[in-house]
Design goal:
By secondary structure, the chain is of the alpha+beta class. It has three domains: 11-166, Glutaredoxin (3-Layer(aba) Sandwich); 178-310 and 346-534, Glycosyltransferase, CATH 1.50.10; 538-619, 3-Layer(aba) Sandwich (Glutaredoxin), CATH 3.40.30. The chain is 47% helix and 11% strand. The protein has 25 helices and 19 strands. The strands form six sheets. Strands 1-3-2-4-5 form a five-stranded mixed β-sheet, sandwiched between helices. It has a four-stranded mixed β-sheet with strand order 17-16-18-19. Strand 4 (106-110) and strand 5 (116-120) form a beta hairpin. Helix 4 packs parallel to helix 6 (134-147) and helix 17 (429-442) packs across helix 19.
């Protein structure tokens, strides 16, 4: 048996390399083998820090008897959902026709052309609570394939047709006004767990994009976001030793968490804390919570290369046995004697963009050079190693080796948005220029269609079979690729890159506006951007002399100023921004050889001021 996973880029696939199953990685070779052998395909999807993926691997995929059935009667494909999110999205949509309990591991049975005819998630080694044993599932699928092939083909064809018909452009609408955004806040407030924080019943997720919307939505939303973040930060969902948040909890009081720690959740929650930290007198919990996440990201998740690992595992080996959460239930002194849970050191472009954005924002607001430096190191790594010579993005890399997986719209949008935020935090226009280039490559000129599409056209195996789906606009743990691109475009427009970018952002948000207001729990990132777009456009540029002489109080006030954008630049940087086509910086100088603040509304600026009291006076006008 050929071991096709031993040299895989994905740590998740490498963890399955020693299984007795004859695994294939995602690609044409597997489907070609299925056609030649005339057998069905098992597409098994998971990720490295997925607890139930580990369980099923030990119980079933390591079982020689199960492996013999799979090898004899199926072609088995192992997919890392983080490396191939388009594949995961397509098969999740298909699986929804067979089970309401969507999650991972996701096990989808397909024809040799990749069309699903049955799916489920975790299957136990023995029947339990009405769930059939995996061996029973395999036997039933094999029997149906041999004896009722026509029925399976009809199911697969009908499902593929239904998914294609349902994957058109989302129902759009006008951008929401203040009243509509307030209704969305009210819907979320009605779902709040006032005792423990969060929304709905168990299991409970931090839904960071929703908190981002609440922060942007005004006083009532901001209070709800602060209350929620405070309760989560004091709960078992947060690691009190290393500062990071776990992925979700199985109980309403946030106890019994699933202990994997994701880059996405922690980056986005840090961004929420940073926005709350802009308040003149932020609640005392905000800065320590932010510091804890910064510590976790920089000390645990950032690799020597500068990139960030995608996740840290929930399991570790303690006293010779695998333990779910055992490491995290110990204090600092006890942990020092243990090997930490493994990192999934796969560097994902989009997820790293989220970390860059959050660290840059937190570093700027809290004047934390450590956070800004971490963001800069990651950005420099990605720009050097994840942007190919032809401008195409790399989806993932491990140890400097690039994956052949197609990059997605979220990679473009999240990286671009992170680069704009880093340009604001450092005053360096090169990052904004790189972001603009990324958005230009993804932007579509057709004013009637979706304004952004992934450069390169998506996963080629799905495209060849007609199974590729448009970028999903819905959001759960992270903003969608559509929202991320729109966010970057809007931020570029705020810096003066041109109305074209504002129009792109508005088109993208109109495509989801109707459904987002009615279902805010699933469109937090989009609503956050819509709230920012609905607010008055306020821009604050503080220019300090190249040779020094900055007013520390004025600079500090700029960092905390509630505006669409607040930025501190040197005279040289202001000139470079202007020369690069960012009109907000045109003519911005440090007058009288001292720090000078320009507060503008939609690019119309008040007279410059040189101290904090005069800046504060402008706010009251």
């Amino acid at each position: 048996m050929v071991n096709r996973l031993a040299d895989a880029l994905s740590p998740y696939l490498r963890a399955h390399a020693d299984n007795p199953v004859d695994w294939y990685p995602w690609g044409e070779a597997a489907f070609r083998a299925a056609r030649e052998r005339d057998v069905p395909v098992l597409v098994s999807i998971g990720y490295a820090t997925c607890h139930w993926c580990h369980v099923m691997a030990r119980e079933s995929f390591s079982d020689p008897t199960i492996a013999a059935i799979l090898n004899d009667r199926f072609v088995a494909i192992k997919v890392d959902r983080e490396e191939h999110p388009d594949v995961d999205q397509s098969y999740l949509a298909a699986a929804s026709a067979f089970t309401r309990e969507l999650g991972w591991p996701l096990n989808v049975f397909t024809t040799a052309d990749g069309r699903a005819f049955y799916a489920g998630t975790y299957f136990p080694p023995r029947p339990v609570h009405g769930i059939p044993a995996f061996s029973e599932v395999l036997a039933a699928v094999d029997e149906a394939w041999r004896e009722r092939r026509g029925e399976l083909d009809e199911t697969a064809a009908a499902l593929a047709e239904a998914l294609s018909a349902a994957s058109g452009t989302p129902t759009g609408g006008d951008l929401p006004d203040r009243a509509a955004l307030d209704r969305a806040v009210s819907i979320l407030a009605g779902a709040e767990d006032r005792l423990h924080g969060g929304f709905g019943r168990a299991p409970k997720f931090p839904v960071a994009p929703v908190l981002e919307f609440l922060v942007a939505a005004g006083d009532s939303g901001r209070e709800l976001a602060a209350r929620t973040l405070k309760l989560m930060g004091a709960s078992p969902l947060r690691d009190p030793v290393e500062g990071g948040f776990f992925r979700y909890a199985t109980r309403a009081d946030w106890s019994e968490p699933h202990y994997e720690r994701m880059l996405t959740d922690n980056a986005l929650l840090l961004g929420v804390a940073a926005e709350l930290g802009r308040d003149e007198h932020p609640s005392t919990f905000v800065r320590p919570l932010a510091d804890g996440i910064i510590h976790f990201l920089t000390e645990r998740m950032q690799l020597a290369s500068g990139g960030f690992a995608s996740a840290q595992d929930s399991e570790s080996t303690i006293d010779g046995e695998r333990s779910e959460g055992g490491y995290y239930r110990r204090d600092a002194a006890e942990r020092a004697e243990l090997e930490p849970p493994a990192l999934d050191e796969k560097v994902l472009t989009g997820w790293n963009g989220l970390a860059i954005e959050a660290l840059a924002r937190a570093g700027f607001v809290f004047d934390d050079p450590r956070a800004v430096d971490a963001a800069r190191r990651a950005a420099d790594f990605l720009l050097e190693h994840h942007v190919r010579a032809d401008g195409m993005l790399v989806r993932a890399s491990l140890g400097g080796v690039a994956s052949n997986a197609a990059s997605t719209l979220e990679d473009t949008g999240m990286l671009a948005s992170g680069l704009v935020e880093l340009a604001v935090a450092t005053g360096e226009p090169a990052y904004a220029i790189a972001a603009r280039t990324l958005i230009d490559r993804a932007a579509q000129a057709d004013g009637d269609g979706m304004p952004f599409t992934a450069p390169g056209g998506g996963d080629p195996v799905l495209v060849a079979r007609g199974l590729a789906m448009p970028a999903d606009p819905a959001e759960g743990a992270a903003p969608s690729g559509i929202t991320a691109c729109a966010e970057a475009a809007w931020r570029l427009s705020v810096l003066g890159a041109g109305n074209r970018y504002l129009e792109l952002a508005e088109r993208a948000m109109r495509s989801v506006a109707g459904i987002a207001v009615e279902r805010p729990i699933a469109f937090g990132g989009a609503l956050a951007l819509m709230a920012r777009m609905a607010a008055p456009l306020v821009q604050l540029v503080t220019v300090v002399p190249d040779g020094g002489g900055a007013d520390d109080e004025l600079v500090e006030a700029t960092r905390r100023h509630a505006a669409s954008v607040s930025i501190v630049v040197t005279e040289r940087q202001a000139d470079e921004f202007a020369a690069a086509g960012f009109d907000l910086f045109e003519g911005r100088t440090a007058t009288d050889a001292s720090a000078t603040a320009y507060r503008c509304r939609s690019f119309v600026c008040a007279l410059p001021v040189h101290n904090k009291p005069d800046l504060e006076a402008l706010v009251d006008r």
